[in-house]
Task: inverse folding
């Protein structure tokens, strides 16, 4: 009887109206950051449900070491628990980017974007995170009502090749390479089945990757390459991916997949002046069109270039102020409520077409 039941489940038909899936699981992702990450529990439940309904299957979240360990030897999970819980509740896989050193572990204590000075303390924080959110972690025993979704992917830092994320920049490939090697060993010891995602490399990522291989000694110390770029011309995303793929391949790592852990543009054209960022400033409708075209391009080339995931930047932003990324959200968050921009409908349409179905608030396929 049990075998018959299992067999029936294996051949159970897809929901009515479901089409053939064209992308691998978790291909459609989104970034969860900026002001909305400080929202109320009610807002979290509302927005993560909305992410699931709109086709988001993976969310990149910031695990700020700075906020978690303001005092050395003391750790709080009040900033990370809500994100892990919301992800599990709504069937979305969380990808933590573990970044931002606390003042006691910075090269430049007064700079949030300082490079870390205490690599072992960073590794120790990773161990604490895996013990809480990894397989058999304390978080899951404390929250038995949640679906059991242990975190198995860890991204090590963010954009070490730019000054506002890693300063000073002197010898950054060697210094980040040392951090990555220690982090890789730490993650694999704590959870041998976990995967390490290299920090997203921004701008001329292929040049940064060359430097990390040649000077940073990173070969064998990451499972997945991360890349970040913003553009209003879709072909630029292909050019960046091709260049990065060639860099990885020529260093003997053809098996390494690429994750776009940030891809996007900014609907700030005509609203703010942002010298140096004009190449990715567009309008509201332009942002929606770019999202559609960019996912279409990545899907076309995903097998050839080994693109496994694309995290769109970002789920929500304020659409106020003078920062170019303040206008990148596919929703507006004004501090109280969330309002959709045209790019949300574009995301939903693209995800539904390529995931093969409409989703519910738990990221499950449902009848049309």
Result:
């Amino acid at each position: 009887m049990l075998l018959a039941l299992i067999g029936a489940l294996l051949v159970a038909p897809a929901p009515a109206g479901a089409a053939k899936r064209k992308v691998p699981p978790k291909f459609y992702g989104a970034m969860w950051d900026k002001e909305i990450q400080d929202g109320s529990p009610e807002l979290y439940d509302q927005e993560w449900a909305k992410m699931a309904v709109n086709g988001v299957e993976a969310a990149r979240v910031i695990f700020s070491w700075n906020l978690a360990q303001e005092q050395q030897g003391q750790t709080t999970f009040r900033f990370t628990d809500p994100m892990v819980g919301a992800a599990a509740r709504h069937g979305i896989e969380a990808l933590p980017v573990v970044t931002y050193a606390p003042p006691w572990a910075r090269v430049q204590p007064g700079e949030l974007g300082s490079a870390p000075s205490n690599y072992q303390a960073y590794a120790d924080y990773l161990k604490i995170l895996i013990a809480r959110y990894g397989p058999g972690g304390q978080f899951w025993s404390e929250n038995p009502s949640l679906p059991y979704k242990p975190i198995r992917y860890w991204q090590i830092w963010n954009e070490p090749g730019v000054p506002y994320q890693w300063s000073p920049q002197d010898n950054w490939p060697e210094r980040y390479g040392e951090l990555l090697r220690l982090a890789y060993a730490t993650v694999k010891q704590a959870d041998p089945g976990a995967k390490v995602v290299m920090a997203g490399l921004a701008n001329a990522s292929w040049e940064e990757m060359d430097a990390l291989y040649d000077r940073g000694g990173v070969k064998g110390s990451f499972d997945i390459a991360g890349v970040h770029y913003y553009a209003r011309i879709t072909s630029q995303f292909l050019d960046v991916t091709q260049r990065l793929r060639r860099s990885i391949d020529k260093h003997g790592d053809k098996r390494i997949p690429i994750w776009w852990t940030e891809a996007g543009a900014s609907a700030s054209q005509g609203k703010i002046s942002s010298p140096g960022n004009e190449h990715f400033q567009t309008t509201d409708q332009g942002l929606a069109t770019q999202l559609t075209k960019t996912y279409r391009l990545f899907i076309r080339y995903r097998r050839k270039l080994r693109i496994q995931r694309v995290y769109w930047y970002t789920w929500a932003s304020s659409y106020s102020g003078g920062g170019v990324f303040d206008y990148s959200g596919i929703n507006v968050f004004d501090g109280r409520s969330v309002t959709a921009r045209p790019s949300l409908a574009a995301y939903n349409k693209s995800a539904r077409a390529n995931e093969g179905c409409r989703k519910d608030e738990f990221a499950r396929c449902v009848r049309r």
Observations:
- The CA atoms of residues 115 and 312 lie 26 Å apart.
- The two ends are 32 Å apart (CA to CA).
